[in-house]
C-alpha cells in the first residue's frame, strides 16, 4: 500500500516531502538525541543540468556511512534535513523521500530523492533528565566538533555546535553545590567563556559586530581578564566605529599581557584613529576657551 505524498517541512528555498511505502510503529518516533539505525537505497541527485553529486560534507549520503544517526548530531544542511525527516517517521517505516533546494528566485538548485527505512530507534532520556556529568560531556563534545568545523571553514556549522554546547551548560543550571565541587564549577565557567569567545569569532566572520560585542561582554562578566574576549570585543567596537572603546579594550588586553602579538598589532592599527579622536577633542576644547 502506498500513502499520499506529504510535506514534512517547507521553506521558500527548501522543501522536504515523503511518501510512506510501509508504515511503522506509531508509538516509537525519534526525537532529539535519539539513536537511529537507517537504511538508504535508490539515491538520486540532480539539478537543472541533470545528474549531479551530493555535497562531500554530507555524512549520510557519502561513503563511509554505517547507517547510524544521532538526532541533532549532524552538521551539513542536507544531513540536518534528513534528521527532520526522521523525526517525522515511525520505527520500521519505509518511505520515499524528496529534498528540493531552490535559490531566491525559485529556480531549482538541487533535488535528492531516495528510499529510506527507519530500521531501529533507541530511545534516550529527555535532556531535562540528564545528569550534570552527561550534560557537561555533551557540551564538550559539541564544542570540540565546533572547533574542528571552524578550522574546516564551516563557520555556520561550527556556530551551531557552539550554541548546542551552550544549551547543555545552561541545562545544568542552577548548579547544585552539594553534588558539584568548586573545581568542576570552575570548569563550567571556563567552558562557558570559551563558547562565548568561539561564537563571537564566528559572528565576526560575518561582520555581525553587535552580536559579537554582546558575546564578548558576556565572556568578560565571567572572566574580566580574558584577552581573547577583550581582543575580539575591540574588533567588534571597530566595526561599530566605536574607536575609543576599542582602544580601551586593547590597552586593557596589553596591560594583562604586554607581549600578546594579536593585541599589539591591533593597537598599532587603532593608534591613528585614537590620535585623531584626541586631536579633534583638543580642537574643540581650544575653540571653547578661545
Quick overview:
This protein is α+β, with helices and mostly antiparallel strands and 290 residues long. The chain has helices spanning 77-86, 132-151, 155-172, 182-205, 209-222, 227-239, 243-256, 261-288; strands at 6-11, 14-22, 35-47, 50-51, 68-70, 94-102, 108-122.
Explain what this protein looks like in three dimensions:
The protein is of the alpha+beta class and 290 residues long. It has helices at 77-86, 132-151, 155-172, 182-205, 209-222, 227-239, 243-256, 261-288, and strands spanning 6-11, 14-22, 35-47, 50-51, 68-70, 94-102, 108-122. The longest helix has 28 residues, at 261-288. It is flat.
* Number of helices, counting only DSSP H or I runs of 4 residues or more: 8
Assembly annotation: single chain
Anisotropy-based shape: flat
- Output the radius of gyration: 25 Å
Q: Which structural class fits the helix and strand makeup?
A: alpha+beta
Low-pLDDT windows of residues: none
* Helix percent band: 40-55%
Q: What is the element string, with H for helices and E for strands? A: EEEEEHEEHHHHHHH
Q: How many individual β-strands?
A: 7
Strand content: 15-25%
Largest sheet: 7 strands, antiparallel
Mean pLDDT: 90
Distance between the termini: 93 Å
Protein name: (African queen) hypothetical protein
InterPro entries: FKBP4/5/8-like, TPR-like_helical_dom_sf, TPR_rpt
TPR repeats: 227-260
Keywords: TPR repeat
